[in-house]
Amino acid sequence: MVTVTNYFSRNNKEGKAFILLELQGDMELVQSLETGKFYATVRKCTLPTTFDEHTAKMLIGKQLPGSVERIDCPVYDYLLKETGETIKLTHTYAYSPQREIGADNVKQLTNYSLH
Question: What range defines the domain where residue 82 resides?
Answer without folding.
Answer: 2-99
